[in-house]
Amino acid sequence: MSSKITGNRSSVGFWAALCGCLVVAAAGCVQRRMTIRSNPPGALVYVDDYQIGTTPVSNDFVYYGTRKIRLVKDGYETLTVRQPFPIPWYEVFPLDFVTENIWPWEIRDERVVDLAMTVAASTPPESVVARAEQARLAAGSLPAPPPLPMAPQPVVPRPIPAPPPQMLPPSAGGLTLPPPSPMQGLQPPRQNAPSQGIPGL
Length: 201
What we know:
- Helix content is 24%, strand content 25%.
- By secondary structure, the chain is α+β, with helices and mostly antiparallel strands.
């Protein structure tokens, strides 16, 4: 009879120990969550260069420390901040072992980050091109681009200047003759004239 009671006690002890292990394993948990909001909303959010969504957006995290948060939205300046997430007192060693494993209730650590964006200033295209040119020259990795082609200019024919008139020396009578024309010294071509009764060809 006593062996039967001892066997029942040992089985009860086994089940109690098993239930205790399950309770300890299920108990204690810290849920860490960050919520990022922007003014105006609808900005694309990158945390440590990983895209997590558009504001307002919430995301779980595991480790504390400083996070790089970048907001991108059309018409607004891109905003990049280094946001610290300090460690709470219950996550400092050795208390973190208790809160992560033994504490029977869930602990929620919610962090909210509110960021304001500024409207992008309108930049004339010429200054954008100039800044890009300066960046390209500073990098020194690409050759200078060829100059932009100019619009073709219409070709206007220039008149050939006439030679100055040549005056002949005054004659005895005091008259001045006009200069000879360029055609004056030319003679018409000679044609085969009949010679000694032979007809021309």
